[in-house]
Amino acid sequence: MIKYFLYFLFILIFISCKKKDKINPISTVSNSTGVFIVNEGNFQWANASLSFIDFKDNTIQNDLFQSVNNAPLGDVAQSMTIIDSLAYIVVNNSGKIYIINKNTCKYSGKIINLTSPRYLLKINKQKAYLTDYKDKRVAVINLLSNTISGYIDITSWSFDNKVIVIDSENDLLQDSISVGKQPNSIVIDKDNKLWILCDGGFYGSSYGQENAKLIKVNPENYLIEKTLIFSDLNMSPTELSVNKTKDTLFYINNGIFRQSIYEESLNTSIFINQDNKIFYGLSVDTASSKIYVSDVVDYVSNGNLYVYSQSGQLLNSYKAGVNPGEFCFMY
Amino acid sequence: MELLISIYYNFNLKNLLLFVSLCLCGKYLSAQDTLKIKEVNIFGYKKDTIAHNFNRIDSVIIQNSKFTSIDDLLKNMPSLSVRNYGNGSMATVSIRGAGAFHTKVLWNEMSLNSPMSGQTDLSQIPVFFTDNISLHTDGQSLNLSEGGLGGLISFENTPSWENSVSVSQEIASFNTYGNYVKCNLSNTKLSEKLKFYYKSSLNNFTYNNYAILPAQQMKLQNSKFHQIGLMNELYYKINSANMLSLFVWYNSSIREIPPIMTNVESAKYDENQSDNNFRFLLNYDKKLSKGNFDYKIGSSFSEIDYYLAQNNNTSYNTNIKSYEIFEKISFEYKFFQTLNLSLNNITNYKKGLYTEIINGNNFSASKFESSVYINISKDILKKVNIEIATRELYSNNYGISHCPLVLLKYYFNKKKNNGLVISASNNIKEPSMNDMYFIPGGNINLKAENSKNSDLFTFLTYNKNNFNVNYKIGCFYNYIQNWIMWKPSAYGFWTAENINNVVSNGLENSLNLSFNIKTIKINLISNYSYISSYSNNTKDKNQLIYIPKNTFNSTLYLKFKNFALNYSIHSESKRSISLSSEDEKYLESFVLNDFGFKFNSKIRTVAYEIKTGINNLFNYQYQLVVWRPMSGRNFFIILTITI
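YS: structure for the whole thing
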């Protein structure tokens, strides 16, 4: 009996052995110029990732963060900002910012204890501002200590219609501009005028829904100079971008639309057809004027990236991670 | 050692006082003689058992797991995949490669599936509150209900015509305490069974968090839970053929929801959920000389409060209420020796109310549905029996749907109950209220999901002296059309869509072996299943997420005089976690080993039982849901006194 029990125990111990994880070869970006792609991943799946297109040979490396650092990037990567030699990747639902070396992608630090961070903007060498989806404050980040040094109270929230003006010298709320419901992107044109794209909210929202708007604002006096209203209530335009010469706007609205800053009405003719793709992220490389757009396929599969010339001709396409949303150019 | 420290520092006075007082109470009660009841003749007709026997979970397993939650017990069943977010957290089960919302769960034939989400949180159902558990994976589940596209789990309570009081105290790792009281009082006509339990845990186990940089060992945060439940069963025997039963069940829990491993460094985090459920059921059962008549009427109320705040800012606060009224009339009759008729009618009225307190989004919905089941079973040859059945369902949202079943049995040996069963059926599941009305993302244009199921299995038994073998081997093929999935949309929120047709097929093996070696009783229960489950809409035919291809579990029970030992192995092969068909990401395969030891003794009329054990003996680090760590090696001790 004891003999059989020992055999049984041996088998148990044997089948309980575990293989060691394989470590992927380390990839680096080196001193290339190119564009980082922040792949959001899916909420609560922590499958966000980082890709890089090298401009030298037009190749893409996927899952860079994981392969260099042997750890997942986190849950819903929202954006990336390069400040000097460091890249700050804002991981929204993980409530943190990972800091990596922009050339090696190697982990260099982190800013933690954040609620739902989204975008980081460099103000000067010591300071950056961080917006947050769930916090009605803009966090002031100390770039030397990687900590929150203070907050700027703002009254606005995700479901609102305000563009906030902040005095960046004193970190104080200066003013606000009422625009359309849910402003989602903002650019500045060659005449130093602000263009703000508002998606109008969604059906069933307790905050209500209205037609989307593209609004031109004079940053000197905060007055609205032009309001272009989208004709259909179901239109939900996003991802406003501007070209190299800052005289043409691009945005996604079931396809890519192009709009001259001098036109008095919305250009309704589609610039790049979406066909069976789902365009999600859009950015114009201000150095080359190439248009980078992401296709999320079905929001759960690996997405595609398309590079178009300024005239709308397809130049290149790539396979990226899940839900590629943001582009961050590195020169 | 961890357990001893835990006992020394954390054994709270409340538990001690409760335990001591119940022991004293037991001493008083022990002075009374056990009431002996007269022998009772129960008449009725004998049901065919070939296709039913293997559905029932062995009483040895139930007895051994009675202080755990149902999900913990079900992991030892074939073709089941438990999706558990951690101890005390949400636990669902998928059967035969289908989704968790394709598992129908019944309590005394009344549905436990939430009308809002369509799922059942099994962590809220203690094994302690059930007497019989059966798993129905073939078309015969239609007899009980439609909607179990993967399968159906049925919990039942049965009367116990005895007088006893039993008190149990559980102490386990991670500051886990449980108090269980069961009281049976009965005479020849009336039987009352009262069960109460309270369980709490800090659940703050240590794990290696390799999902953050730098990797570190840390304790699970925001993870404590409290559960309390009360169930009363009253059985009144009108006469030997008629019985009236009343069941009342109240269950409540408060649980914190820990962040996933990648999110532990976010701002001060408070996410919790409280659940309150109240159910009652009245049952009249009449035994006929050649059949059975049964009438049930019941109602349930459920409320869930979900709260999420970070940095003291409340982000979400939702309240979900649902009500359900249930009625079932069943009639079974054996007309001749070879012809059986079974009829039942189930009527449900459901109402749900969802309120998002912060953003003000809310909706309410109601649903009426009624179905009729008719089954004719006939022996067409000496060894061949055929069953033809259908459940016709009417709902105010989807009109009339049909769920037919054809089943053929061939007996190798009718006396020994050995045979072969082949069946084909159609089943249907209508979208839940969340699927249809949730704001934002609900879709009122969803089609009902339907499945075509086919099954072939053989069932062999061998009994000689004290050597008993029950063996089942079978295969199945299920095809689910219009699978509903929530997917992100272009509007920035998730929407419900019918997107998939899913094929699921596999092989199941079950063995139950018992024999004696001298005075040692040995029982081995083993299951193995192979499941291939993939979307028919993709080229790659990748395995669906969280569905292991291979599952093996085995438990060995040894009983010698007053001692009993059990050793369990549960293993699952790697499970895909890639929502994308091009990615290959998996949760690693795992093997869990649990060990238990039990000692029984009786001093006069008081029975004592001490049970202790180690779960996850080899301290395996594993996950059942991606980035949700499960506890490593942990200990428990349970002392039970029965009078």
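YS: worth flagging: Chain A touches chain B through 53 residues (CB under 8 Å).
IM: good catch. Also Residues 12-26 of chain A have pLDDT under 50 and may be disordered.
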